[in-house]
Design goal:
single chain; mainly alpha; 2 domains; 77% helix; globular
């Protein structure tokens, strides 16, 4: 009897797998990612936009992304299809569900509860990384750094909850997130043999990033629905909503044709990972701004805050797709890559100029969709000429 119980325990509660025990699709990962649909929705569609500044949105969304990255990397590197991994994921999902409740309270009213719950979750992640560091020698150095980073971040979040004024908390969170991103990139650059974050970028992880991008783009649909709900029905409202959807469709088309189907080059994997943060921010920001543009579809000029948020977000997303394309393994010549970069850079400038002119919302949305179409057509033509047609999976 004792032997059977011992065998069950060993089968149910595996030690962390240093080489990664997961192959193919894992339904648990998809379930985990669904929690972030709620979190991103709460961060993108704030009930009181007047009290939710752009800095607050960037900081909150950035930390949601970093929490997703940490949990995803733990499961990607050390997860197995056993009870231990399932309990770990379900515990993270429970923390994240509670965190989602307090996202709408962040802003001028104060983000203390959000900061406190984030700190608790970061402590839990630090404990998971510490366990991995003790039981997995192959990734001990990476795990220790992640544990230290999670623990120190938890301390900062607790301090901001009690000591920093409500209007300044997001600035501290944003600075902290930027510091850790820069630290990770520098550690990978100067000590790649020990940090090894880039070494963990597998095709499975590429697919996970693609799924997260789809989740972010899905917020465009929510934006259109919310825009319709708060607008007068009519031709221009309907046109703006459909064009808002078109912007989301365009980002999906460009991203999955030029980036998502190919793994990053070996020396650029860490940069590839963190470029997804501003990419997701840009996509989410354009969706959030689309709500205001649809609500003002009958105006002669686009409202300035919404227009600037929309074009800056769209330009950021375009540039990040372009930079990501430079990191992937593709048979492009240096001349083709340079031409594609200059093309997207010019497209981003055109988008920003259009936003500064503040045309009517339908025209502004149509202009961005047109730029996306031109980017895709020109990029496809350049890839075809160089013999590096973007791969597609059928």
């Amino acid at each position: 009897m004792l032997n059977r119980l011992r065998a069950f325990r060993e089968d149910f509660w595996h030690r962390p797998d240093a080489l990664g025990g997961l192959h193919g699709h894992d339904h648990l990962e998809h379930f985990y990612d669904l929690v972030f649909v709620v979190l991103i929705g709460q961060a993108t569609h704030h009930p009181d936009p007047a009290k939710y500044s752009t800095v607050t949105f960037v900081a909150v969304f950035g930390w949601i992304w970093m929490l997703w990255l940490s949990g995803t990397m733990i499961h990607e590197i050390h997860g197995r299809k056993d009870g231990r991994s399932r309990i770990s994921i379900f515990a993270q999902m429970s923390f994240l569900a509670v965190l989602a409740v307090f996202v709408p309270e962040v802003g001028d009213n104060g983000g203390g509860p959000f900061a406190f719950i984030t700190a608790i979750f970061l402590c839990f992640l630090a404990w998971l990384w510490t366990v991995v560091a003790k039981e997995s020698e192959a990734t001990a150095w990476l795990a220790r750094w992640c544990a230290i980073g999670s623990g120190l971040s938890a301390l900062v979040f607790v301090l901001t909850a009690f000591l920093v004024p409500a209007g300044k908390q997001a600035v501290v969170w944003g600075a902290l997130g930027s510091f850790w991103v820069l630290t990770a990139v520098l550690l990978e650059y100067f000590n790649p043999s020990r940090f090894m974050l880039g070494e963990r970028v597998s095709r499975r992880l590429v697919a996970r990033f693609g799924l997260f991008t789809v989740i972010v783009l899905g917020e465009t649909v929510f934006a259109v629905v919310n825009g319709f709900r708060g607008s007068e029905p009519g031709f221009w409202t309907l046109s703006s909503g459909l064009l808002g959807l078109g912007v989301g469709f365009g980002f999906w088309w460009i991203f999955f044709d030029f980036v998502a189907q190919s793994p990053p080059a070996r020396r650029r994997r860490t940069v590839w990972v963190f470029l997804h943060l501003p990419l997701s921010l840009g996509m989410a920001g354009s969706g959030a701004a689309a709500v205001a543009l649809i609500e003002h579809a009958h105006d002669q000029r686009s409202p300035a805050p919404a227009a600037w948020l929309f074009v800056v977000s769209a330009a950021t997303a375009l540039l990040c797709v372009d930079l990501l394309a430079l990191t992937i393994e593709a048979d492009r010549s240096a001349r083709t890559s340079r031409s594609l970069f200059l093309l997207v850079l010019a497209a981003a400038v055109v988008v920003l100029v259009a936003g500064s002119l503040r045309p009517p919302p339908p025209l502004l949305l149509l202009g961005v969709v047109g730029v996306q179409i031109l980017v895709w057509l020109s990029g496809s033509a350049l890839a075809s000429v160089s013999g590096a047609i973007p791969p597609r999976r059928h």
